[in-house]
Amino acid sequence: MTSLFFLVFLFSSLLTQYVDASPNYVDALSKSLLFFQGQRSGPLPPDQKISWRASSGLSDGSSANVDLTGGYYDAGDNVKFNFPMAFTTTMLSWSTLEYGDQMGPELKNARVNIRWATDYLLKCATATPGKLYVGVGDPNADHKCWERPEDMDTPRTVYSVSSSNPGSDVAAETAAAMAAASMVFREVDSEYSILLLSTAKNVMQFAIQYIGNYSDSLSSSVCPFYCSYSGYKDELMWGAAWLLKATNDPYYKNYIESLGGGGQPDSFNWDSKYAGAYVLLSQRALLNRDGNYELYKQEAESFICKILPNSPSSSTHYTQGGLMYKSPQSNLQHVTAITFLLTTYAKYMKATQHTFYCGNSVNPEALITLSKQQVDYILGENPKKMSYMVGFGSKFPMRIHHRASSLPSKSLGCGGGFKYYETQNPNPNILTGAIVGGPDQNDKYPDRRDGYGLSEPATYINAAFVGTLAYFASGGSV
Ligand SMILES: *[C@@H]1O[C@H](CO)[C@@H](O)[C@H](O)[C@H]1NC(C)=O
Fold first, then answer.
1. CATH of region 4-473
2. Are 157 and 136 in contact (CB under 8 A)?
3. Taking the CB of the first residue and of the last residue of the chain, which one, N or C, has fewer CB atoms within 10 A?
4. pLDDT (tens digit, 9 = 90+) per residue, 129-144?
5. Any ligand 1 atom below 6 A from CB of 217
6. 3-class SS at 358?
7. CB of 450 sitting under 6 A from ligand 1
8. What CA–CA distance (Å, rounded) separates 204 from 247?
9. Nearest C-alpha neighbor of 185 from the set 86, 290, 107, 269
10. Domain ranges of the chain
């Protein structure tokens, strides 16, 4: 007996010592979803687990005599920006559609997170005929204060688009979110699913009929925060692609064709959606073997060729430590969104035994290997040996740029919180699961609250990570 125990002990210590154990993806998945509770606006339910948050924004919409409570704060502030919120919702839904079967007990949490957004987006789309509400809270006033959402005393201005002030970008993204979510709920709540889809169709019609950039009419209320820099054409393709997937209505196929060629992106994020639309439409070329979508498959592959490090057309920089590096501001949003596309395209390739060329032949394993390397970097396999997900592993960001996380649970007024912003002390409230903007181009992370480009979390960083984590949590065996 003794020797058997000894052998088992010896063997397991050898394992931990010599085998480069992967991060605990199951734990990371669970935390990545828990994070959304920390971003909640509106009345919080009794089962709220991030317990240092409380109800907030309870009169949102009242200035327009409508109920716009609920939804998520986008990042470290207290503003509800629907453009990135809708993108977050689309990506959470896509994650769930592709990898829900691999989520185990987390599937229900993913659905709860999606619904927290879609309940709000439905209000925004239906509260006033002819209008789509696209945000609550004056961002310029909000950014002058450092206070918890529970205490905010800044104007909760309501923003909207309409036929005379169009916003095809925000409307098409909102339609994408509701169409994608309608498929998530199809089997579990058909009434809700039908409501989401019919609303998505109306909002998409509005986006198509009244063409324009929402930044033109909303200017300083959305710019420079979530200005639609890339214009609305990418969202029109993306929104129509989601409606096509949800309805199979040839109207959307014809509409997508009428848009003509899209851009040739080398990124994917809340502003720039072509790469996502191409991968989504490739599903039809690969899985349904529908030749009408060959063009989008080629576009998806030329996008991936711009990402792969060894490809002749690569335009993507990698840090010495191996991190994909796209931007000094919130770089990890690009990394999580792109790795989602790599993983998902690899899944479609595997299912159809497809390979393609960028210089050399690319197989699905090459995409998965790159994706895993990025995920592992974020979770701690990097030069600093720290995880960029709060509360994951033994070393993680302690001073994230996030009002609620950085402030004690008491009311301090607009400016009273700045002494907590400026201190070197760690944040008093752990925003478990939050992924920050990430390290700089030299793999350095100063962990400073005022360096928001690196230290601010955002819902869209996490949303795109959820699906990839579910893939690796289940052993990567899709
Ligand atoms: C929308 O914005 C894009 C990008 O800035 C620009 O190219 C386009 O002309 C704008 N469209 C309209 C109708 O203003």
1. 1.50.10.10
2. yes
3. N
4. 999 999 999 999 999 9
5. no
6. strand
7. no
8. 13
9. 107
10. 4-473
